[in-house]
């Protein structure tokens, strides 16, 4: 049987968004203190909240990344991934517009860097996150893709007689 | 007669298979969701605890006698009319050591002459960047030593002993060598060391981190004059520093 080309787009979206989230989470989870600092560099949240987000974000990224890679709850994982990217885009744009020069802390690290480095990195970060958000939106709209657990778990029962 | 029976049996088998599959799917879904919720819950809980600081751990937490402007006042007797100058440092930040060497003397002189109301806020984020706890230990020590009235001198001595290789500060230096060098002895020294050993200043250290964040300071060294953060690139000389302070007074 030949697959719809859109299935393959779905697989690509799952693997790209999933692996980026997984890697980003893994790079942060080993140093949660630094993750908190990265959040604080944005100066958007109340002090106490920066700890909550700094601790929770890496594990959320790892979980979403794994779910997307194995293709489980693809529609919801894709939607959550897209929302996360929208939040990141807002955060980076906000930092940029307020004249802050920070490392986005997307893959660990974070904190203040030189103005030149920051202004060079912001557009790249935002374009990357837009691409990832689009992958998530695709999956939220059309979660069908090959090699996913969803199809094995939720559709195998519906056998045509 | 055999055909309907066989069809019936097949149908039952198929329904049984479907029910089994449905149970399996439900079990998987419930386990995964439970695992995710538990995992994220643990991290959120730990994060909330970290955000609260060490209040519960330190029963005899102290506030330094010269607590002022979110940090510790260098010249607590300064006239109210003088501009409020706050220096934000991390004891492990190399640029802070440079700042101390370049501008520390001048700021101390201005403080002595009552031209500024000078205080310092110690931050500890370098601990997370480097992966040790030297900034926190040194900041706690500085809070403790304020009770002996030698905060400024202790501060200078800590920076003078800053390691260039990021190896931080050891307990012997912070707890014994520097205070002895500054003339602490007898009961004063014992009280300081008890404060150091019990991390009794750690809550105040955490309060200073929060104060810095709330003041819009996320890097060190940072200098604020009456609440305005000065752009470090403008601080090219002692005169530039004085001009900046005057301009914002």
What does this structure look like?
The complex is a heterodimer of chains A (161) and B (249). Chain A has 161 residues and is an all-alpha fold. Helices cover 73% and strands 2% of the residues of chain A. Chain A contains 6 helices and 2 strands. Chain A has a two-stranded antiparallel sheet with strand order 1-2. In chain A, strand 1 and strand 2 form a beta hairpin. In chain A, helix 1 (5-29) packs across helix 5. Chain A is elongated, with a radius of gyration of 18 Å. Residues 157-161 of chain A have low confidence and may be disordered. With 249 residues, chain B is α+β, with helices and mostly antiparallel strands. Chain B has 9 helices and 6 strands, in the order H-E-E-E-H-E-H-H-H-H-H-H-E-E-H. Chain B has helices spanning 2-52, 94-112, 126-130, 134-145, 151-160, 171-181, 186-197, 202-214, 238-247, and strands at 67-68, 71-73, 84-90, 117-123, 222-225, 228-229. Chain B has a 6-stranded mixed sheet with strand order 1-2-4-3-5-6. In chain B, strand 3 (84-90), helix 2 (94-112) and strand 4 (117-123) form a beta-alpha-beta unit. Chain B is elongated. Chain A binds chain B through residues 31-34, 36-37, 40-41, 43, 47-56, 58-60, 63, 67, 72-73, 111-112, 153-154, 156-157, 159, and chain B through 14, 18, 21-22, 24-25, 28-29, 32, 36, 39-40, 43-44, 46-48, 50-52, 125, 127-129, 131, 210, 213-214, 216, 218-219.
């Amino acid at each position: 049987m030949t697959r719809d080309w859109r299935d393959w787009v779905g697989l690509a979206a799952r693997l790209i968004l999933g692996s980026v989230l997984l890697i980003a989470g893994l790079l942060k989870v080993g140093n949660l203190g630094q993750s908190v600092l990265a959040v604080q560099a944005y100066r958007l949240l109340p002090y106490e909240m920066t700890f909550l987000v700094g601790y929770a974000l890496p594990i959320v990224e790892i979980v979403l990344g794994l779910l997307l890679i194995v293709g489980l709850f693809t529609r919801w994982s894709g939607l959550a991934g897209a929302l996360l990217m929208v939040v990141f885009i807002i955060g980076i744009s906000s930092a940029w517009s307020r004249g802050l020069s920070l490392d986005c802390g997307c893959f660990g690290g974070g904190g203040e860097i030189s103005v030149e480095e920051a202004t060079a990195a912001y557009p790249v970060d935002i374009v990357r996150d837009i691409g990832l958000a689009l992958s998530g939106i695709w999956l939220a709209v059309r979660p069908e893709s090959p090699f996913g657990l969803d199809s094995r778990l939720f559709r195998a029962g519906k056998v045509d007689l | 007669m055999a055909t309907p029976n066989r069809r019936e049996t097949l149908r039952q088998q198929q329904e049984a298979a479907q029910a089994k599959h449905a149970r399996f799917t439900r079990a998987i879904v419930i386990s995964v969701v439970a695992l995710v919720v538990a995992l994220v819950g643990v991290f959120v809980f730990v994060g909330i605890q970290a955000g609260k600081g060490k209040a519960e751990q330190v029963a005899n937490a102290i506030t330094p006698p010269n607590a002022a402007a979110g940090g510790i006042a260098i010249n607590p007797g300064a006239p109210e009319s003088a501009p409020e100058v706050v220096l934000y440092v991390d004891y492990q930040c190399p640029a802070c050591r440079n700042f101390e060497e370049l501008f520390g003397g001048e700021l101390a002189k201005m403080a002595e002459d009552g031209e500024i109301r000078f205080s310092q806020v110690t931050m500890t984020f370098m601990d997370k960047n480097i992966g040790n706890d030297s900034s926190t230990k040194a900041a706690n020590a500085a809070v403790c030593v304020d009770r002996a009235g030698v905060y400024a001198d202790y501060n200078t001595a800590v920076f003078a002993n800053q390691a260039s290789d990021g190896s931080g500060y050891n307990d012997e230096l912070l707890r014994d060598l520097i205070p002895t060098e500054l003339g602490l002895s007898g009961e004063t020294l014992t009280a300081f060391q008890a404060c150091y050993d019990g991390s009794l200043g750690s809550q105040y250290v955490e309060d200073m981190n929060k104060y810095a964040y709330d003041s819009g300071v996320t890097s060190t060294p940072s200098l604020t004059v009456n609440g305005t953060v000065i752009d470090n690139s403008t601080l090219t000389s002692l005169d530039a520093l004085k001009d900046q302070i005057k301009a914002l007074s």
